[in-house]
Structure formats: structure tokens, C-alpha cells
């Protein structure tokens, strides 16, 4: 059970206090301001450069244009922060650069990161790129319906988790055991419990650190810093490293590997690719599209605290300062997803993926209160996914939503039986059951009415389908860039 949420209810602040969705933390906001200042400055540099814009100023101008495009659809605080963070990071690495140069570096790193993302030569097998598991056409989730993806040097190895979407990660705060919203987001005194961090268990905070995991993992890309360095030196884009990272980038494998990680992280922060806010629901919030009766009903059920209560964790409303909802509060929560017996790792009946308390994550090992917790994913673009939950056990949204509606009223539909008795929560040893969430819709027992009936489940699914980016209003002629087009 999530203390923070119960606490919030008791204080009567209600859902409003949960709207950390924009999640630009105070520091990110500052960074956004700095970036906006940088963009403004860059634009004026470009404007002043009467004798024909220099290469730097043009690039900065282009970047400003991209920023402005994103800012036109969403509030600046939500769109500019990560670019700004990247820009200011570059700036702090290379003090003495002009802002235009900083922006040019970000642009170069982004271009390089994109090429690295699609390059299978970085992997030990030579067959696996980031994009193999994170397909741009599928919201950067897998294109196939496998619960877990194949990898490793022989491409026969698997891990224990489903590959998540890489979109809207810009809003994930750094992991905190006790998350407190900043004062302008909500009530600073409320402890929302463990929140944030990347991956299903929140074990890293930055995209760069994250990228290290699949590159080096024996069951994913199975590479080494030396192999990655050799691959990028031989790649057609090798010449782009020195302009982006400086003369010394090839001095050591370590320096090159770090540059690769930073380029990937910078690419993952491209607003128009990774957080464009172009779903039908965004258009609806902006008053530019209407939801069908089924979608609208689905939204009501999604928000209704007595029905789906989905929005208590998957935030659906704009933040108080107008930032679009992220469809996650990024809390780490135990919802008791059934054991996926199809996973090779689960052939060992003593093995459990306990999320935040291990085994992938090691710093909270032995902390029982973290066992079974996984980070709440965004539901944006969820309809492009083909496997759901951390172990990829379900392969349709209907099944995923039915699990919420009937986990407690009809547990036999989800868990195996042994000697006629349903083995509820079969992927979490009983000593951790106290960690399981018991709020609606998980507040029922056999014999009770499910929180959602079959028709309601269908409507919730119809609503979830409005969260896919790239929506075009019927009859609209303006082309909205889709993730696929933008990333290819
Ligand atoms: C073999 C499939 C595979 C490949 C290849 C792969 N990933 Fe992943 N990715 C995953 C899985 C599985 C997870 C979830 C890992 C976990 O929770 O432990 C993940 C998680 C992530 C996350 C965190 C997402 C979140 O919701 O917090 C990021 C970012 C990411 N990957 C980026 C990359 C990058 C960059 C590359 C290339 C260097 C890459 N991935 C290559 C499977 C893959
Ligand atoms: C108490 C918080 C909470 C509530 C309430 C909640 N969710 Fe979730 N949701 C989570 C967490 C945590 C996960 C990941 C769990 C895991 O994989 O172990 C998740 C995962 C999902 C997924 C799978 C996404 C993916 O990328 O694999 C879907 C779909 C989903 N939720 C939909 C809903 C709907 C619909 C409702 C309302 C009926 C709802 N959720 C209510 C916390 C919540």
C-alpha cells in the first residue's frame, strides 16, 4: 500500500496533490529558464549576425525553432527542461563555450545519439541495436509480442523483463525512497513513498547510466567499452565524435564509451521524438478534438475513485501550472502481477524478480518493504505495446485492464490453482504481501462486484487508445510528425 497516497487522501488535498505529473523539479525548472534564455540569446546572435548566419547560429536557430514548436503545444516547463539540462550539462563540461556553441554541441550529440541508437555493430553479436528492442514505430517498445526479448552473444539469451517504452521518460524524477513534491507542485510535507528512477525498479537516474546496462548486459547487447569504441571508430559517423565531444574523445576506451552514453542520453531527450504530446487526448485537452462516447466513458471510469481509480497512479489531468499529464506518478508500487511461467528465468521455482529489492537492483537488497515494487509506467502510447507489465505476462490491453478489475473478485482467472486452492500473488513470497496495494480497484474480495464489468473494460481500453501520439484530426491537412518519421 502506498503510504503517500493514503496520507494525501486523509489530509483532504485529494488528487490535486498527486499532480506531480509535469514533474519538472525545481532544478529542472531553473534549467528550463536558463535554456530559454539560451535559446533567446542564440536567436539574437543569429539575428545580429547580419553577414549571413554562421554555422553555429544557424544550428542554434534551428534548435530554437524545434524548441518553439514543442513549446507551442505544451508549456515550456515541460518541453524545454531536458534539452536545457543537456545544454547546461555540456556548458558546465566546457566552460568558456558560447551559448550558441553549447546548442550546437547538443544538436551534434543528438544526431550522433540517433545513429548510435540504430547501430547493431555496438553489440557483441553485431545483431542487436537499441532500436531492436525499442522500436520507434511502437512508441520505442518492442515491435514483437514476446514477453522478453532475445539477446546475448548468441542471440539466444533472455532477461526477466519486458522492454518498456522510452517515451515521456524526461518527466521521471530521480529515485527517492521518500518523494516529496516541490512546493509549487503540491504539498512538500507529504511523503509519497518510493518514486522515480529509470527501469522497472528505478535503479538508475540518468539515460547515460541506463544505456550502460543494455550495452554491457550479457543477455542484451553483451558488449564491452572496448568493443563499443572499436565499433564507433569504424562506423561511418566516426568523424562526428570530435566535433561533438572534443579532440580527446578517442584518447581512451573510457572517454569514447562515456561519449556514446552521453550521446544516447541526449538523443533520448529530443522533444519532438520522445515527448511530442500529439495524442488525441492532448488534442482533446486543448479543445481541438472530441472523444467518442466510449472513449469519454472510459476516461470517466479511469478517473472514478470508486471504479478504475487508475488516475490515482496514472495521472490524467494537467498539472496546476498547465503541464500535460504524464499518465504516471512514477511511484514504485506492488500490484501482484502473476508469475510469468513462460520466462526461462522462472523455470527455477526459487527465483523471484522482486523489483526494487532485487536481484537486478542491489542497493535496497534486504529491505523487505521494497520487495515486489515496480515503477508505475506511463500509459502514453501503451496501445502500441504488445506485452504488458514488468514480466510481459499479458498481451492485450483487455487482459491488462481485466487484471485490475478482477484480481481480487476472480483471482482464479489470473493465478494458478494447487490442490483446488488458488495461489494468489504467486510471484511474491507471502512475507512481502504487506507491500501489496489495497486501494481501489484492489479493495475487493471474491463475491464482490468487479470494479469494472466487461463493457466498462472495453471503454477503458478505448480511452487508453487515445493516448497514442501522432493523432491527426479527421480531414486535417497539417502533417503531424509521428515518432517513426521523426526518428528515422
Ligand atoms: C534486448 C532488448 C533491449 C535492448 C537491445 C535495449 N534495451 Fe533498453 N530496456 C530493455 C528492458 C528489458 C528494459 C527494462 C529493464 C529493467 O527494468 O531492468 C529496458 C529499459 C530501458 C530504459 C529505461 C526505461 C524506463 O521506463 O525507465 C531506457 C532509457 C533504455 N532501456 C534505453 C536503451 C538504450 C539507449 C539501448 C541501447 C544502448 C537499449 N535500451 C537497448 C530492453 C532492451
Ligand atoms: C496503485 C497504483 C496503480 C493504479 C491504481 C493503477 N495502476 Fe496501472 N500500473 C501500476 C504499476 C505499478 C504498474 C506496473 C506493475 C508491474 O509491472 O509490476 C502498472 C502497469 C499498468 C499497465 C501496463 C503498462 C505497460 O507498459 O506494461 C497498464 C495497461 C495499466 N497499468 C493500466 C491501468 C489501468 C487501466 C488502471 C485502472 C483500472 C490502473 N492501471 C491502475 C500502478 C497502478
TrEMBL record:
InterPro entries found in the cross-reference section: Cyt_c-like_dom, Cyt_c-like_dom_sf, Cytochrome_c_Peroxidase/MauG, Di-haem_cyt_c_peroxidsae
Subcellular locations according to the entry: Cell envelope
Keywords, ordered alphabetically: Heme, Iron, Metal-binding, Oxidoreductase, Signal
Molecular function per GO: cytochrome-c peroxidase activity; electron transfer activity; heme binding; metal ion binding
GO CC aspect terms: cell envelope
Annotated ranges, domain Cytochrome c: 108-265, 293-468
Keyword Oxidoreductase assigned: yes
Region Disordered: start-end pairs: 179-205
Gene3D superfamilies according to UniProt: Cytochrome c-like domain (1.10.760.10)
PANTHER family: BLL6722 PROTEIN (PTHR30600:SF10), CYTOCHROME C PEROXIDASE-RELATED (PTHR30600)
Full protein name: C-type cytochrome
Source organism (scientific name): Paraburkholderia ginsengisoli
